[in-house]
Fold this protein.
Amino acid sequence: MPASSDRQVVEVEGHRLSLSHLDRVLFPESGYTKAQVLRYYARVAPVMVPHVQGRPASFVRAPEGPRGESWVAKNPPPGSPTWVSVVPVKHREGTTQQIVVDSTAALVAMANLGAYEVHVPQWKADAGPGAHDRLVLDLDPGPGTDLVVCARVAQRLRQLLDDDGLTAHPVVSGSKGLHLYAPVHPASGRAVSGYAKELAARMMGEHPGLVVVSMARIERRGKVLIDWSQNASAKTTAAPYTVRLRETPGVAAPVTWDEVAACREPGQLAFDPEQVLDRVAEYGDLLAPLTTDATRGHLP
């Protein structure tokens, strides 16, 4: 991928892409440029694409970076190549055509259009929203708590999920919190959401001073929110390995349970794109079991 020229034509998987504004600094605090983001996506695609392919994607678009205008886009961004896969998705407001990021070329093409954050649902387009194949819990620290506290909550949730025959995989969100994924045999969004809500309530019953399931900000002070609602068919979650549009370029990065247990400071589980690439080179895809049928559990 290009490093310095502000505009360059490249070929990715047989597709010609005209990359623009490559010298644009997206993250002023670190000096991280658009060219570096594109290079990251091109290199991380082999491990990221398996977690997003087949799923209708929505994007957080911020062409000038996190300090500029940003918005959530479900429809294909203007200028999207005609060869990028799209699928129809029904929403309350009607049916939209949404991108499916199924290749390195598609991932780079979207990032080139300023669609830097990739979000996907817990179901695939060919199966439809009635067949969720993974459960997700979003652990979000309220005021007075942090990622370290999320890590402690995650360890107990891992045990509860294991007791129910489900295998949890931790992913730092790239923002403040932690995501837990568990592969499941296909089930309806209502069934997965119902189980996730019950699990979160069970955890709150065990630790009422530590955990909350209400979105009300006043109730979240000093506690970790277990957001179970992202299992609803209409909801999406920041995809594993996506760049997050924060002051610094964080990444939603898979981590090991040993790392979660050892976390004593939030910075221990915060990674920039280059660090994530180094981790992939050393460990491969820590989240690979999420995509294999052998690890799927049945909801209780």
About this structure: The chain is about 30% helix and 25% strand. The mean pLDDT is 95. The first helix runs from residue 34 to 52. Helices lie at 34-52, 104-112, 147-163, 189-206, 217-220, 257-262, 273-283.
